[in-house]
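Quick one, T. Sequence first:
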Amino acid sequence: MKIIKNTQIIISCIWLSACALKPATSTKNGDARDYKYAYISQTNSLTSSTGVSVDGNYYSTSKSVNPRDIISGILAKEGFVLLTELRKEKASETLIVNYGESGRRNTGMGSYAIEVTIQFISSESSELISSCTAEGRGETEADDIRKAISRCLNALILE
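Structure tokens:
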């Protein structure tokens, strides 16, 4: 009986650790707070859906996300002025923000997490000021991306 209970505990620990998101990581070569403006590179929208069949009827929900919109909202809330184009006269005060999906990891039970990486680059020198990487997991890929971006920027800006 004790062997079964210990086996259940070990399996639960393995399952929970597989499902857990990796901690967000960041690299800082400078402070993003030294900049006033942000120019965010264009990104494409993603639409994803989830559904279920009940008594022969199919019910689905679709969600869309544009990573640029999420990043814009968070940076605006933090006090950055968002630029629609790069301006030479503001280069010394401007961050270029790049976004990319950097991975996908199976977390078990048919679930996975999407990893994103965001870079803050000096508009003046083209040097990397800081970057972050984080995973997100939700009901849809759109949720995964939204959560990953939030975790990433929280690790980068709020630390």
